[in-house]
Amino acid sequence: MEEEFKLEKAGEVRVRIAPSPTGPLHLGTARTALFNFLFARKYQGNFILRIEDTDVERSKPEFEKDIIENLKWLGIEWDEGPDVGGDFGPYRQSQRKEIYKKYLEKLLAEGKAYYCFCTKEELESERQYQLSIGQAPRYSGKCANLKKEEVEKYLKEGKPSVIRLKVPTKKIEVEDLVRGKIEFDSSLIGDFIIAKNFSYPLYNFACVVDDYEMRISHVIRGEDHLSNTPKQILIQEALGFPRPKYAHLPLILGPDRSKLSKRHGAVSISEYRKQGFLPEALVNFIAFLGWHPKTERYIYSLPALIKDFSLEKIQKGGAIFNIKRLEFLNGFYIRQKSIEKLTELCLPYLIESKLIEKI
User: Fold this and answer.
1) Quick check: is 262 catalytic?
2) Rounded Cα–Cα distance for residues 211 and 215 (Å)
3) How far, rounded to the nearest angstrom, does the alpha carbon of residue 111 sit from its chain's CA centroid?
4) Contacting residues for 178 by C-beta, under 8 A, at least 6 apart
5) Beta-carbon contacts of residue 36 (< 8 Å; ≥ 6 apart)
6) Most Cβ neighbours (<10 Å): which of 10, 23, 110, 250?
7) 3-class secondary-structure state, position 344
């Protein structure tokens, strides 16, 4: 697998981090951003920040600000994004609705997608029946057979609808750059919803269109997105898009191997900042959450990480979060600071605690 990356040409790699501004920047998103950044810099490629803010109710400007500020604080810089621009913008999904509409219309015109008018009650009844006979719940495709006249009539009447992708029955194979060969059966997926309407594309559809339009070469993301991969490939195939290379990072787990949570000490990056953790300590710590250089070395600066990073060294099993290790690394980096720099770093905390007065 390492040989494959030796063949990557400078400038051909384009990767992205696509956070939703529905909360502050957390450890998992920061790790995904870091690994994408390291991969881009390793191969002299481009790293893109894309804000996935189609969830209008939950997306907040203050969360976008938090994400941007804390990524920059960690030293993770991007080549294209909402704040720096680029040739493939806009870089906020809320500003890309006309682009999504164009591709939705294309799928509908080609008969690869269709309007579904089934009610929630009908869908739930169908789901319960499938479960009762031991089948995996999936949409039956009932509305795929509606005549054009019926569809136009329902749309004219304003009958509630969604847009579904017509899914062919097939095996989907993915050569994941971390996990190896993975197979999916599309018959277990069924015709899934890709948009509520032209102005409200759902995650998988918008993600595929954006990755294509932004020329993303590698999709490096958390293992929790693995279930989205077959759906995104089906959308790519329906639109005639090339498939990017996929790499799914292991989940971050607590010491008890359960899902990472606040009780394990995991908080937002801004909270770590308030607690006095240094950016270099956090970067060093995050890098080792699933990646191992296969040496005894454990202190790494950003330039050193760029030099040694490779997807081949990412583990498949869960990455264990250990707050004691972060505290140890923070202590190490604190001891490297001069008295002058330490004083400068400590002043805001001393002023906030009213131990000294602001001059």
Assistant:
1) yes
2) 6
3) 30
4) 247, 248, 249, 250, 311, 314, 316
5) 15, 16, 17, 47, 220
6) 250
7) helix
Q: Enter the tokens of residue 270.
A: 């801004």
Listed in sequence order, the residues at least 6 apart from 46 whose beta carbon sits closer than 8 Å to its beta carbon are 11, 13, 14, 15, 40, 79, 80
**In contact, 221 and 249? CB cutoff 8 Å:** yes
pLDDT in 10s for each residue of the chain, 359 residues: 333 334 455 558 999 999 999 999 999 999 999 999 999 999 999 999 999 998 888 999 999 999 999 999 999 999 999 999 999 999 999 999 999 999 999 999 999 999 999 999 999 999 999 999 988 899 999 999 999 999 999 999 999 999 999 999 999 999 999 999 999 999 999 999 999 999 999 999 999 999 999 999 999 999 999 999 999 999 999 999 999 999 999 999 988 888 887 777 778 999 999 999 999 999 999 999 999 998 889 999 999 999 999 999 999 999 999 999 999 999 999 999 999 999 899 888 888 887 787 76
DSSP state of 55: -
Residue 320, token pair as written in the block: 């264990």
Residue of 262, 294, 324, 358 marked active site: 262
Structure tokens at 1: 């697998």
Q: How far apart are CA 334 and CA 328, in angstroms?
A: 10
**Domains along the chain?**
13-82+250-359 (3.40.50.620)
62 exposure class (CB count in 10 Å sphere: 0-12, 13-18, 19+): exposed
